[in-house]
Specification:
single chain, alpha/beta, Chloramphenicol Acetyltransferase, 2 domains, 8-stranded mixed sheet
Length: 637
């Protein structure tokens, strides 16, 4: 794939994950006042995404290739680049076209990006594109506790939605600069719509009559639950409890056809099945109600019983794909931008469709919801009769039944193939790198490089998402964590002939290089989106795509065997996603003060990769790097 997330097409060079901004500790919300049109005023005040200089990108591209390609490959690429950027050549023409596009659009990249990274990406969204998010296990273990927590969760989301609707959401800042807030306005009341060749996204929050309902799924059955009273006030948690109990009571049997599992299909297959599904008027109305809803709440049935040691990993699987057709994969509508998932055993979290937004707005919403669920209920519920939640009906033809069976089979193959390991690195957190005046994110990324090198004896193309939200409608660019500096450090680290002082010096240089690339990326000066833009500009101008994009080195640069993202949050949670290439890993982490939550994924059918082994190697690398620092006094600067 991808992109952070996305898990989006490697061939265009994205990354998966999730668009987290660095340094995360500099992102500060500032309280907002209620001002009409404040959102639009804020957005218009943001700068537009720059187009980096062509020569700068070409030079930085060569530097990025150095640790991951052979010398003869690099020599060939340099020759191609010299030809590409020569005076009066195709590179200059494409650069001028991009600069012209930048002058007449809000963001020269954003529309291209959502199309190429997501909507024309045809692998299933489940595992390959949509991340899951695992919250700490909540303090309930039965159906009543599940319902009570889910009711408070709904109230918490509606509380956050009120800030979006009233445009009182605190503006976030990075290094004193305001960030684009657009993604917050895209995650509620929106949904992906499958197409036979390309998907689309609809956002009903901006319609003349915005939706007032959510979708609740229980035992594979879908319900419309109105969450506002006739006077416009949100239902209280007590009222929501009553309604959720009604839904659960009227959907006790679980022998219904799991229509939701159709959303796990390959996008071309789902696009065809979708057109067939909505030929029926009842089906079309039911699907429309799901698509229009503010969000989806999945009340899950039991998952397999596991040990405490593997509970977090099983929870991650539940959030990412539901566990397969025999568990909860059919208790979803994966096209929905935001799905909250609550199990009976205290397991809870979310899954989100990646096209409208990156991780930070989702995490900010979830942090707000978790905080809200911990508050005591204040408002008393009025004793007014509530309308019965409306069950959504589907007419299942033999052809739709066949599609459902195909989806079950494909989903089970994918579920069996994904290996997901969630671990808590409990020895230290952000505190240790900070005490050595190092960026925690850079420290963790260099540890990942060391862990991978210890397993494979070489560096690989590594994707880390960087936020471009300092710019209007900014999404992500790539931090390339494998650098010449990181390669020098990891090769020296286990060399007994190297002195500790030299190893520390190389570590500092590697961490500094990563920090430098991060700053470059969030400033719109990284290479990956610029190269993609030049390629797409050639397509736009109906020119033959330049040879640098068919160069084997370019394919190698986009084959991200390590697709990573830092997703910091206040809640003690971790995001998870699948690898973006068949022989790669997905690695997401949330550094807390005294520990680090990791989610590492790989595919079982690849004999080269092993998620548990990489997770263990990362733990060893982090411990060894700290030991080296502790044992090697550094000269006072």
């Amino acid at each position: 794939m991808w992109g952070i997330c996305s898990r989006t097409m490697v061939k265009v060079g994205m990354a998966k994950p999730c668009g987290i901004m660095k340094p995360c500790h500099l992102v500060k919300p500032v309280s907002a006042t209620r001002v009409s049109g404040r959102y639009l005023t804020h957005q218009k005040g943001l700068p537009t995404l720059p187009v980096p200089p062509l020569q700068q990108t070409c030079e930085r591209y060569i530097s990025a290739l150095e640790p991951i390609v052979e010398v003869d490959e690099l020599k060939h690429t340099k020759e191609l680049l010299d030809d590409f950027q020569k005076a009066g050549g195709v590179g200059e023409r494409l650069q001028r076209g991009l600069e012209k596009r930048a002058g007449i659009t809000n963001n020269w990249l954003s529309e291209w990006w959502v199309q190429v990274a997501y909507l024309t990406y045809r692998l299933p969204v489940v595992v390959h594109s949509s991340p899951g998010l695992v919250l700490p296990r909540m303090n309930f273990r039965d159906k009543q506790g599940q319902i009570r927590f889910a009711a408070k969760l709904i109230s918490g989301v509606l509380d956050f939605k009120a800030m979006i609707d009233n445009e009182t959401l605190p503006v976030e800042y990075l290094g004193g600069k305001p960030l684009c807030m657009n993604q917050y306005y895209e995650v509620l009341s929106s949904c992906r719509i499958p197409g036979p060749k390309k998907d689309s996204v609809v956002n009903h929050a901006k319609s003349p009559r915005p939706p007032k309902h959510i979708t609740v799924v229980h035992n594979f059955q879908f319900f419309v639950l109105d969450v506002y009273n006739s006077d416009g006030t949100p239902l209280t948690s007590d009222q929501l409890c009553v309604q959720l109990e009604r839904i659960c009571s009227s959907s006790l049997q679980n022998n219904m056809e799991p229509v939701g599992i159709l959303t796990t299909l390959h996008r071309d297959s789902w696009g065809k099945a979708y057109l067939n599904l909505i030929k029926d008027t009842t089906n079309k109305q039911s699907v429309s109600a799901i698509q229009r809803s503010i969000f989806t709440l999945c009340l899950d049935g039991a998952m397999p019983r596991v040990s405490d040691e593997t509970r977090r990993s099983t929870a991650a699987v539940q959030m990412l794909h539901g566990g397969g057709s025999q568990w909860n994969s059919g208790n979803r509508w994966f096209d929905k931008t935001l799905q909250f998932i609550v199990g009976e055993d205290g397991t809870c979290g979310a899954n989100y469709e990646h096209a409208p937004a990156e991780g930070p707005p989702i995490v900010a919403l979830i942090d707000h919801v978790v905080e809200y669920t911990r508050k005591p209920e204040t408002s008393r519920s009025p004793m007014v009769p509530l309308p019965m939640p409306q069950k959504l009906h589907f007419n299942i033809t033999p052809e739709i039944k066949k599609n459902i069976e195909e989806a079950k089979q494909e989903m089970n193959i994918l579920a069996d193939d994904l290996d997901m390991r969630v671990t808590v690195f409990g020895h230290f957190g952000k505190d240790v790198p900070k005490s050595h005046k190092m960026s925690p994110d850079a420290f963790i990324q260099i540890a990942l490089q060391l862990a991978y090198y210890r397993m494979y004896q070489h560096s690989c193309a590594t994707y880390e998402s960087a936020s471009l939200r300092m710019y209007r409608l900014g999404r992500t660019d790539t931090i390339r964590s494998a650098s010449s500096a990181s390669a020098a450090f990891i090769k020296a680290f286990d060399d007994p002939n190297k002195q500790n002082t030299e190893k520390v010096d190389l570590m500092v240089k590697a961490v500094t290089a990563h920090r430098s690339y991060t700053n470059m990326a969030i400033s719109g000066q990284a290479i990956d989106r610029h190269l993609l833009g030049l390629k797409l500009q050639a397509v736009e101008e109906k020119l033959s795509v330049p040879e640098i994009f068919s160069d084997p080195a370019y394919a190698k640069a986009l084959h991200y065997k390590l697709s990573t993202s830092q997703v910091p949050s206040k809640a003690d949670c971790v995001m998870c996603f699948g690898p973006v290439v068949s022989n790669g890993y997905g690695v997401c982490y949330n550094p807390m003060n005294n520990h680090i939550n990791f989610a590492v994924s790989s595919f079982n059918n690849c004999k080269e990769t092993n998620a548990a082994q990489l997770a263990q190697a990362v733990e060893g690398a982090l411990l060894d790097m700290r030991t080296l620092l502790d044992q090697t006094p550094r000269a006072k600067l």
